[in-house]
Amino acid sequence: MGQFDPNELSGYSRGVSSQRYSTATKRSATKKKVVLAVVIILVALLAVAGVAVATFLHNVNNNIAIDEQNLEDLKEQLVAPQQPDEPYYTLLIGSDSRDPSDSGRSDTIILMRVDPKVPQVTLLSIPRDTEIQLEGYGTQKINAAFSYGREAGAVKAVSELCGVPIAHFVEIDFQGVIDLVDMLGGVRVNVPVDVELNGISIPAGEQFLDGEKALLFSRCRNYPTGDFQRVINQRILIQAIAKEVLRASATEIPALIDKLSTCVATDVSATDAIAMVMAVRGLDTQSNM
Question: Which whole-number Å values give the CA distances from 13 to 6, 67, 280, in the listed order?
């Protein structure tokens, strides 16, 4: 029997260890390459997503931007809330670029109070025939304030009439109402009284309205009470639209804002608009609006 040689065993052990170390090193290097590849792919995807988001926000902001000079005048009239969760007022103006006889006067005037804490939204519709003293023009209907003074003039007139500071301004063309309602797939409303306008009839009772009929419902004044019934109808329609918008998922809201941006002018940025919608997503449109 041969004698045990510790040096031979030691050499064998070193050879095996070296082989194992080499294999482990190769595996580790392979893993690092895989991890690095995954990281590079993720970074590339995030970069593409970042560019897409930046492009989306840039396009929306360009669409909704108010003329630079008008915006400067408007900012002088707007008063931002002191705290992020403090209630604030937004002036909503509805106009119709399709009506050449309108001369830029606002057809719909709504003062909206938003309380993010509750959340709660309160709407005050102001009849367009309401008379005010308009600086430089004497006694005028309040919708003339937008015609003569644009966004700043409308905010100033409504703020003075109602005695509250206004933080934001939104103008929506009536084509935007049609597009939004159609994008939502229509809205369901309880029509208080029969509507008849331009040869189209909407019977009283629960009705499912597409964009064109929703606009008709909100604009008709052929009632014994005239503009007062129209104000009621507008409130009903806004509640119905808000219910559908707030029901939309977080991923659907940007698409809605993108669609609306072609028919809206506002001082609010795209990111702030999305944040505002998300802040009141739990709103009960029946009891808190």
Answer: 10, 81, 70
